[in-house]
TrEMBL record:
Cofactor: Mn(2+)
Record protein name field: Hydantoinase/carbamoylase family amidase
Segment forming the signal sequence: none
Single GO MF annotation: hydrolase activity
Protein species of origin: Hoeflea poritis
PANTHER family listed in its UniProt record: ALLANTOATE DEIMINASE-RELATED
Lineage: Bacteria, Pseudomonadati, Pseudomonadota, Alphaproteobacteria, Hyphomicrobiales
Length: 400
């Protein structure tokens, strides 16, 4: 098959253009279904059309660029929504690298390549929402009832794209496999001065939305012994799981309480309500199960002891996922040709849409370095030469 020669300037130019949607400092604010996200997706649809791909918005807001062929073709891409404070390359890199490979392939008579930007990978409504819906892990009507931290539902949010979305989903059978290019979002490649990571496995993730409800009262006249303080409950919960996890976790296990909202969040009022998300990740499904049991038991026991009401909602569970050996081998050969001696096989501590797509078809991932290992931060960045080299590896693996 003829080589696919990507156009580095076009790749970098489109990355900068995508960066302009929701630009903030050196990063982006482009949460799923925001004005910036929808404008970015409409621009992407135009670029897909110019590349000879038919742009299709599915009911979940996922954007596919489908080549005019009835032969199953490779699908490549990632997501173009961002964290509330996102880097300019998280997800965006994989979408634009895929688009560049698709059009370069079409220009040189190479294989047809489909492109995708999944919706809400960053989890305004949980995590990997768009690819969970497309792969059948999350029914659309169930997703519609999920609310974000401001109380807006997925149904309300996706209504903003109603005029763009078709009624049906693209059938996964149209694709022979999926390759996602992504920034590493960690320090391994940058520390080793290597250019490419070929992913062997993606950690599993669980998260639970929790609410402790106590009794809002005066901070001066309410004796400590009779308080039902939701924040004190959360503080005790955090200390208890840190202690109980000690015998369960490994240095690779991570857990985060990254979102907390106290009601009424006033310095002279005993907090009546604490809403928070507890998220944990590991490469072992058994360990994720064990941690979930500790989380649930600890929350129930603490709320019982402190007279707090416990509500648990919006569970997210994506299992640890091995990448497909055949597609991975193609990436390894492409990496060795493109960046001899400057690549490695490595696991992903970040979650990716490839973890969901792997449920339906062979899936693989490649990484490019993140400078200083920084991500989910406006200052996230990657050297231009690494951005180009990653797209060259993607092209070579697809052309093989
Ligand atoms: O959190 C993650 O792993 C992904 O970047 N959303
Ligand atoms: Mn991402
Ligand atoms: Mn991310
Ligand atoms: Mn470099």
């Amino acid at each position: 098959m003829p080589p696919i020669n990507i156009n580095p300037d076009r790749l970098l130019g489109d990355l900068q253009k995508l960066r302009s949607f929701g630009a903030r400092q050196s990063g982006v604010v482009r949460p799923a279904f925001s004005e910036a996200d929808i404008a970015a997706r409409e621009w992407l649809a135009g670029r897909m059309r110019e590349a000879g791909l038919e742009p299709v918005f599915d009911p979940a807001g996922n954007l596919f660029g489908v080549p005019q062929t009835d032969r199953p073709c490779i699908l490549s891409g990632s997501h173009s929504d961002s964290q509330p404070e996102g880097g300019w390359l998280d997800g965006a890199y994989g979408v634009i690298a895929a688009l560049e490979v698709a059009r370069a392939s079409a220009e040189t008579g190479g294989p047809p390549v489909a492109v995708v930007s999944f919706q809400d990978e960053e989890g305004r409504f949980g995590a990997l929402t768009g690819s969970r819906i497309w792969t059948g892990a999350l029914p659309l009507d169930e997703a519609d009832g999920i609310t974000d931290l401001e109380g807006r539902s997925f149904a309300e949010a996706r209504a903003a794209m109603a005029g763009l979305c078709v009624a049906g989903f693209i059938q996964p059978g149209r694709f022979s496999g999926f390759i996602e290019a992504h920034i590493e979002q960690g320090p391994v490649l940058d520390d080793a001065a290597e250019s490419i990571g070929v992913v062997n496995a993606i950690v599993g993730i669980r998260s639970l939305q929790m609410r402790f409800t106590g009794h809002q009262n005066h901070a001066g006249t309410t004796p400590m012994a009779v308080r039902r303080d939701a924040f004190q409950g959360l503080a005790a919960f955090t200390g208890a799981i840190n202690r109980d996890f000690a015998d369960v976790v490994t240095p690779a296990t991570v857990w985060t309480i990254g979102h907390v909202a106290l009601q009424p969040n006033a310095s002279s009022i005993v907090p009546g309500q604490a809403d928070f998300t507890v998220q944990w990740r590991d490469g072992s499904a058994d360990r994720l199960d064990h941690m979930e049991a500790i989380i649930r038991e600890t929350a129930m026991r603490l709320c019982d002891d402190r007279g707090l009401q416990l509500d648990i909602s919006n569970p997210v569970a994506v299992p640890p996922t091995e990448m497909d050996a055949t597609l991975r081998a193609r990436l390894e050969r492409a990496a060795e040709t493109t960046a001899p001696g400057a690549w490695r096989i490595m696991p992903s501590g970040a979650l990716h849409d490839a973890a969901n797509v792997a449920r339906l078809m062979p899936a693989a991932m490649l990484f490019v370095p993140s400078i200083g290992g920084v991500s989910h931060n406006f200052s996230e960045d990657t050297h231009k030469h690494d951005l180009v080299r990653g797209a060259e590896v993607l092209a070579r693996a697809i052309a093989e």
